[in-house]
Amino acid sequence: MFVLFEDAGKFQTGRILSEADTSLQVELDSGKRVKVKAANALVKFEKPQPSLLMASAQALAADIELDMAWEFAPEDEFGFADLARDYFSAQAPLEQQVAMLLALYESPHYFRRAGKGRFKKAPADILAQALAAIEKKKQIQAQIDQWVQELASGQCPAPVREQLYKILFRPDKNAPEYKAVVEAAKTTHTAPLALLKNAGAIQNAYQFHWQRFLFDNFPKGTGFPALSAPPITADLPLAEGVRAFSVDDSATTEIDDALSIQGLGSGTVTLGIHIAAPGLAIAPDSPIDQVARHRLSTVYMPGHKVTMLPDAVVQTYTLQEGRDCPALSLYVTLDEATLAFTASTTRVERVPIVANLRHDQLDDVLTDAFFESTDPVPDTTVGTHIALTWANELRFLFRLARHLKAQREVVRGKPENFNRPDYSFKLEGVGETGPQGNETVVIGTRRRGSPLDLIVAEAMIVANSTWGQLLADSGVPGIYRSQASMAPGVKVRMGTKAQPHAGIGVKCYAWSTSPLRRYTDLVNQWQIMACARHGATAALVAPFKQKDTTLFAIVSSFDAAYTSYNQFQAGMERYWTLKHLGQAGITEIEASVIKDGVVRADNLPLVMNVLGADGLPRNARVRVRLGAVDEISLDIGGTVIERLDAEAVPAADDDDSADTEELGGPLTIAVDMDESAADAGTPAPNPAAPPAAASASD
Q1: Model pTM?
Q2: How far is Cα 477 from Cα 467, in angstroms, rounded to an integer?
Q3: Which of 24, 154, 309, 591 could in theory staple to 313 by disulfide, Cβ–Cβ 3.0 to 4.6 A?
Q4: 209-251 pLDDT tens trace
Q5: CA atoms lying within 13 Å on the CB side of residue 592
Q6: Could you state, in order of their start, the residue ranges of all structural domains in the chain?
Q7: 64-83 burial: b if 16+ Cβ within 10 Å, else e
Q8: Is 285 left (phi over 0), alpha (psi -120 to 50) or beta?
Q9: How far apart are CA 16 and CA 31, in angstroms?
């Protein structure tokens, strides 16, 4: 005697060895013996052999017309054998009965299970919906198949092209576009990125990086809604005796800060730090504020930038020379001889901006030699003329900046050394729509910590730390940057509490000096102006109160956005560096070893993995032959071909943080080639690393 039974959703057959009230002992064709619940036994039979029965039933089941079977089926519950007799004949043999069982079981849209071997047909309306869904699925699969063919032949279907970045980085794994890419990659044995590039979905490497950034951060584009800058209606006093000047690059339009000096030669000097005051006109939750809060910062990249505020708004509040500009001013009184601070005050006022000084006009003139000398400079260039005009102020400010830096270094416990240059990127031939990726790039250098840089940096540290302390003393919350210590792995964090910043060497540090390009600074400006105007009652009138959830949300959003923006900037700088290598025909570079297998180019902003550097000491100088460049992953190969020094000389600033600079590629994508195309499980990224990322400045 044989039996057909159900086990874990499958039908099996075997020979009955013994039988009890509730169970059977059954021997399968494989020889394995199993215990079967009596309730799971559907048919007992003498012949044919089980294997023949199932083969015959499966063949018959494939030919059963389900529409007709559904019509034959009664409205009430029924057994499979009963329907077989109605469908085939009143004498339907066992093979046909089992065939009907299989067909019913595998057609849940037509028939629903109602118990042991029993079923009930689906209502007509439910069946119609199910059949429509099946037909739609067939059509989608047909579309997927067509797209697979097109991708395999080097053509990219428009829907796939439109969904490119979603497919690669945030896919819906049930979407037909995603499934088509996966299936085409499997069919052609081609990596997804290569497949899409071959099919023309990726126009060029630059557009790939740019469009990916927009997809992640500006899915609706970088344009602004129609906004006008609200006027500053407050009756502000004019700063008396102030002649303020700014120091920026020539390309800078968002002039946030300016400096002034009064009282030189009197023994008591007043340092003025003047910050553009958009906070006087832009109100929290206003349309312009909502735009700024969404963007959170200006995004910089070679040849282009995405500003936090519309240009017309920026130009309204920027510290433009020749204007009396609304400003938030910090005045610090100090002893001219000892440079000791004696007092400070904060004012909201109009400040005469006398000059916008530019680095590119002055860096070659305002050298260390200029600041260390008291001799006049020959008036032969625009730069020297400016230097003559501001010589006394600049020389005093440089003296003060070095003094302030030395004080901070005592607190830091180690000196700040700038051994590597800052690199600038100039793109030639950029059109109105921004770079296209093939422009000629000129990479320049400027020594970090130059006199002008030092002057501005130290003044901004004074403002950010002084105003941070003012907020704390007034009980007004602000947005701070802090670092608990300089121990390895201790990172700079953002929060709403005034805490020490070990890396800078100050008691607290609140970004406040760039309100035209950083949202944290605009928020802090509102809070600082409340302190300046209302004194002891500032906490009651400041826009953000203690434990304000909105302030916490701003901190979180800004931190994420700022990190993303800096990563993109670093990636674009790496792209143009790799582009420069090809344009200049550079095949070899000189470099210094950072750690095993990683070197830093001497004269280019390039960190890369190389072969042949393992085992070499830190700072060992080598010559590297460059290999292939991948502009998509921003990766480049290289091999050490020569050691250039006998022994490595320790760098003045041998800081392990240099080791954390990220390298290029391979690129991380979310297309999972290991899972079924129909599987919508959690994405598993390919083994890859993103483009180079810059750490946010403090």
Answers
A1: 0.78
A2: 11
A3: 309
A4: 999 999 999 988 999 998 888 888 888 999 999 999 998 887 7
A5: 17
A6: 2-125, 244-565, 586-660
A7: bebeebbebbeeeebbbbbb
A8: left
A9: 12
